[in-house]
Amino acid sequence: MLNTIRLIVLDLDGTLLWTKDEFSLYQPFAEKMEQLHNRHGIRWAICTGRTRGSFKDVIVPLRSMGALPHFVIYKHSYVHTVTRWGDMPHPIWNICSYFIEWYHRVRMHRVLNRAKREVLYRFRGAGVVRHDEEGEYKRVWFRFPSPETTAAAAELLASKLRHYKLLRVFPYRLEVDVKTVPFSKGLAVRSLCRHLKLAPEHVLTVGDGHNDVSMFGPDVAAYTGCPANAEEEVLEEIHRLGGHVAGKAALAGVLEIIDAHMSGNVNSALPENWVPPSQRDNPSDEFRRHRGNRYLGLGKVIFFLSVVYAILLVFANYDMVPFSGLIMKPYYVLLGLSHRLMHWIWGY
Predict the structure, then answer these.
(1) 9: β partners
(2) By CB atoms within 10 Å of each CB, which of 9, 40, 93, 257 scores lowest?
């Protein structure tokens, strides 16, 4: 495949960078990419959600080894060409990407709201655990009373949303997640390839997270791969597309993926003891995060009410508001309890 691949696009966090223990792999990686470029004209790019400043901070060790990409895509969207004087943005490409993203976000918002209403109307006992509408990562997470109801709802949602390739339905044992596949990375890679006059048959993409899935589409890259530490959704997607599922994590996995595609020894098998998500519960960390957000919201309410009471207390102390005595009463009760506590502890 050396005569086919012309561009390699790599995710950053979790793919190129993971732990400090991988520092020893930076030099072999730099030599590998330089060899591919000098012998076969293959260029490579980093596609990251980081800002330009954050990227420059974390890339220092790789840069010191000579592993400097030809292109960088910042914040999932904005293409820069790397030169000896620094990276140069492509404003026209990036403005076009911005408007395409905006259009898809508005469209997905309407589609998800319509799907939610239909599910809650058709399935008795169905509930919404979470509904996020902020930014690119739109999502509705349903919970159902039985596996049979879950399967029926998942089938309905899959049929209703089959025309929207940016929406994915993930059925679990008692829950169904409908998520917007973060699409800006795929748009940015396609934009870069279009201006480099490269077809998907010339592109290899590697990533480990949910926001990398859009880079794996057949309209973006014909060759794909993921390291062993990839999210389950990514592992399934690479398996389905016939990409390489690496047995090693992060940068070691990247080197394995490149060698596998160059030699033609691609392994798409899922890890041993793999259990399909439909036979499992939704990942518990998502539920914990949801609970944490709920408690964070409760804390904000308590803080707001405390501030309002403190303001009323100041005015009530000077009889400037109605029911000043009633407002002051909790304050006097708390003051008395504090005095008794101090007397019990210190003998005042």
Answers:
(1) 45, 205
(2) 40
